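It is worth pausing here to work through a concrete case rather than discussing structure prediction in the abstract. The textbook approach is simple: state the sequence, then state the predicted structure, then interpret. We follow exactly that order.
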Amino acid sequence: MLWGREADRAAAGSVLDRARAGHSAVLVVRGDPGIGKSALLDDAAAAAAGMTVLRCSGVETEAEVPFASLHQLLAPALARATNLPDVQHAALRGALGLGPAAGGDQLLVGVAALSLLAELAEERPVLCLIDDAHWLDRSSAQALRFVARRLQAESVAMLLGARDEFALEGLPEHRLAGLDPDTADALLRQLRPDLPQRIRVRLVRDSAGNPSRCGSCRAGRRRSSRPPCRAGSRTRSRRGSTGCHPPGGPCC
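Step two, the predicted structure:
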């Protein structure tokens, strides 16, 4: 369950619809840390019935490992790489550490990745989810930019979640805003029905509609050694921020 994200879900859903109709589409989901980019990608994956879903996440500690994220994205599809032209197959295997290095031709790796997705989409539409794109290693980022700008009629949908510092010029973007006060209040009522109204009002105001900040109010429960949330505060994880998951599913 996503709270207050009907328009955002529709924007992501239109990308999937285009792929199912035999076209390709790309959408870059922008927003502040904790605003709900990952949750929107999770929701798209759940809605991808009849599609092949490939996914990767940028990881800050792997940002210096060439092609780490591309390997994660394409690993489930590598059995189909034998159908690529020999030069592309060799380049992709070399880049992903599965064969001899093929000279590090970045263009050839991008072409091979594009060809592999097109090959996979001949069976059924493909959804590529790239989360935390701002932490992609440089080689993967270059290859995925190349692919994203050249998708046309391959029945491939691509959703990328990224902060503003990740450059993807020329591609459609959708910005996630904070939850409106009524939705944020409803979220807090579900997470913490014991909260007095005056505390809830302050938390809604201080969170600026950021679901992760709303969710972090759980840290202020009784007997906790962690302080209650404040404006701008959030706990960190490998993916950048905690999600808030009330009973029934993610809220952000």
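Step three, interpretation. Residues 106-121 form the longest helix (16 residues). The two ends are 9 Å apart (CA to CA).
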